[in-house]
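re: ur question from earlier - yeah i can do the single chain one, its not a big deal. heres the input i used so u can compare w yours
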Amino acid sequence: MLGDQMGADPAGLAMAALCTCAAAIPDRIKLKVKRHDNWHESARIWVALVGSPSTKKSPILSAASAPLRAIDHRMVEQWKKEVAKFLALPKAERHDKGPPPQKRVRIEDTTIEAAQQVLEGSHDGILCYQDELSGFFGAMDKYNGGKGSSADRAFWLRAYNGGEYALNRVGRGVVLIPNLSVCLLGGIQPDPIRKLAADSQDDGLLQRLFPIVLKHATLGKDEPKPNVARAYADIVDALHQLERPGLCGLDDLTFDNGAQAIRYELEAKHLELESTEVVSPKLASHIGKYDGLFARLCIIWHCVEHVTVAIGGAELGQEVEFSSIVTVDTAQRVADFLHGFILPHAMAFFRGVLGLSDDHDRLAAIAGHILTRKLQTVTHRDVQRGNRAMRAIRDVDIRPLLEQLAALGWLVRVDPPRPSSQAHWQVNPAVHTKFADRAKTEAARRDQARKTIAAVFGGAR
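and the output i got, formated as tokens:
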């Protein structure tokens, strides 16, 4: 409905709203994923809307995050009042008491140090809102002149997982963040994210993002619609005020038997899907996050369902108890959403938008293509006849890759018959002898990957 009014892709609105709800849910609400393990998850996800400027990324992000930003505004105003009271105290009392901590649910333009200061007082996690993610990633190198970017990236990697975080700094002393927990929501254009993927270290930061590839905007409709924005804001407010279920707030959420069975089936399916490494190692690494993502999405679904019912009950003067059991119906809806919505967007992003973004991936893809096709010679056209991502490699970029394979002893350059023709490359016969077993394994893996992908997308290539 809101998407029709805005003329924006509803997929982007849905995922941005989901991330906002995740950030609103307090981290004290946890799901015990397995019965006989200490694996717990909180509602924490990272979402990137990928599209050109014409896809209305900024309006989507603004509309979806508005309720949480309103909550944060009230929290900032309250904190300012507490700071004013603190500054009015005698100096000795201020020294003993210490300044009031910031308790927030959102940050935007920030440094690592400022984010740490906010997180010291925000134990239930925050939303890092970035209208342009290219600036967020670029600041990791720019702010530290490249020297401390690894430390910055490590900080954000930890923020995806949550949990206690300790640091020691000259001047600040020992700082203990009880829960380093950050949801991330932002937008980025295709070209900048390709460059980021190619230039940055492959430490898994990019793979933690759940990308939504936006369709082009359409003409908005100026028609009366139900006030879904008000209902959505009420849900976000209710999520922010949730307490842990159970006696004295001590219980964690758990799966019922049916939900646990679905989780187990998905775990096996995700292992099978990771065979897509032959198509894109980054995609395989991304799918490796799905077991945890499934649990996190189950928390969001369970909590949203509860507060929606609770809001309806309150209007009738009824109180609804917050159940600690995630049911099989909820788990099935999440499983359908994960594999029917998020996975296709991830495939479109990693295989289409991103493609093969670094030389290692490209060289491995070309080498695998040589082995599986038993090529004796290689031309530019042979390279572009490989998998979908290889077809996206520009002609000007192919020669340096083939020269690298020649330096590794795989190829020998053969001069073309005419100066205007492209060079051919002779495959070293020893390659096929030495890697005969590898060729069989590679062919089997590629065949399995094709079957797996076909099964996921109903045979679509």
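The longest helix spans residues 57-87. not sure if urs matches, ping me
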